[in-house]
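Reply to dn_fold:

You asked what the input looked like. This is it:
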Amino acid sequence: MEIREIMRSPVISVKSDDTVGKVLEIMNEGKINGTPIVDKDNKLLGIIVKADIYRFLMEPGHIESCPVEWVMTKKVVKAQANEDVLEVAKRLRKKSVIALPVLEGDELVGLVSIEDIVDYFLSR
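and this is what came back:
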């Protein structure tokens, strides 16, 4: 099965100049644990997950004014929409990430998380 069949789409994404506080609010409202960071042309720049934010909160700072760019992961582990679910699951585990953006070519089309992968395998 291709990852496109279990990914979350449309994907909720944010801009690198959005504040960490705004992104956390978006994640909580959308009941998601991570979101891709995109530029004005919707090209992938990075990803931020709640664990990144929680690590950031442990340091004194200004959650309402700090841009996401300060916290996001810039070396993004990603998948192509036509990749096999098992291969993507192996990559998530090997790279120790909890979510990754799904692309078709260079276009961001979805997001898949550990929860999505586990749900898929539990449903089989």
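The two ends are 11 Å apart (CA to CA).
Hope that clears it up.
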